[in-house]
């Protein structure tokens, strides 16, 4: 740091006992537990006496770990665009009630804590693998990146990044079928992979893309004269994933399903979605086939 003329102003270490968490890139870091969680202070301090489009927009938090919850105000905002309301017009009573119900669960966001260090010490790269999932519904489409690490005594799966987007408005939905939305989800999955691989330097790690849309798999794998919409996105996907595997996952086992539909915070916490699908811990996939073990619940 001295060579680069950086002035050292402070140094914080994992394991330090401190009542005050440290701000780290929009998250809060609990140094004693070495965990990260979302800072909801700005949301809790919002003035809810007059609910407008501007207020709802300010509640749309970008942090991916809670994307299945924060997609809800984005969906409300999309509905409001079609009403013709200005940014500062008060919304209808029905929308106000739905937004207030959503805000009532905001304090629960801070209950989600994820480990800052997702790998562990002395784990060789060949024990790592990236698993990128995509899914879509009529309301939204989403992608999520998980890191699977095979330790000596256990296998861990941890969320690295997630992204969700609302589906096009009703004016354009006529030609936007579910397969096309699934293709949009696959395209943001490859973009998210590129971002994660660059940031974490994981281009040499085994990577598998997962979708429950067989139509999308056919579009990606086959060289056919698809229409312009499909072909443009297939070209982008093929360019970005550069030969990584694309495989099918049953819809009920696809973790990207939750952020593609939206959920309450209670449902999100119960799912422990950020820890990845349990089947990814027990299944080791190779080639183009993957057998899914039946999950049992106790």
UniProtKB/TrEMBL annotation:
<protein>
    <submittedName>
        <fullName>Uncharacterized protein LOC103517336</fullName>
    </submittedName>
</protein>
<dbReference type="InterPro" id="IPR008042">
    <property type="entry name" value="Retrotrans_Pao"/>
</dbReference>
<dbReference type="Pfam" id="PF05380">
    <property type="entry name" value="Peptidase_A17"/>
</dbReference>
């Amino acid at each position: 740091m001295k060579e680069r003329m950086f002035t050292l102003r402070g140094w914080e270490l994992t394991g330090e006992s401190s009542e005050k968490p440290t701000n780290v890139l929009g998250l809060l870091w609990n140094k004693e537990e070495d965990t990260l969680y979302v800072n909801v202070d700005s949301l809790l301090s919002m003035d809810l006496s007059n609910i407008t489009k501007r207020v709802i927009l300010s509640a749309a938090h970008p942090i991916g770990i809670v994307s299945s919850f924060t997609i809800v105000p984005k969906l409300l905002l999309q509905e409001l665009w079609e009403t013709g309301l200005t940014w500062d017009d008060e919304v209808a009573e029905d929308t106000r009630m739905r937004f207030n119900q959503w805000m009532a669960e905001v304090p629960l966001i801070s209950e989600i804590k994820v480990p800052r260090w997702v790998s562990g010490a002395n784990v060789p790269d060949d024990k790592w693998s990236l698993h990128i999932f995509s899914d879509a519904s009529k309301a939204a489409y989403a992608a999520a990146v998980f890191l699977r690490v095979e330790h000596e005594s256990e296998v861990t799966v941890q969320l690295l990044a997630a992204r969700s987007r609302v589906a096009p408005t009703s004016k354009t939905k006529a030609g936007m079928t579910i397969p096309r939305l699934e293709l949009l989800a696959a395209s943001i999955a490859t973009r998210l992979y590129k971002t994660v691989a660059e940031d974490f330097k994981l281009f040499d790690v085994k990577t598998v893309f997962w979708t429950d849309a067989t139509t999308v798999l056919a579009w990606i794998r086959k060289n056919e004269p698809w229409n312009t919409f499909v072909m443009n996105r297939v070209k982008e996907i093929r360019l970005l994933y550069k030969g990584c595997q694309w495989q099918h996952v049953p819809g009920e086992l696809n973790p990207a399903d939750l952020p593609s539909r939206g959920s309450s915070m209670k449902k999100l916490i119960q799912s422990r979605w950020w820890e990845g699908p349990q089947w990814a811990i027990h299944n080791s996939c190779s080639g183009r086939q993957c057998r899914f073990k039946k999950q049992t619940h106790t």
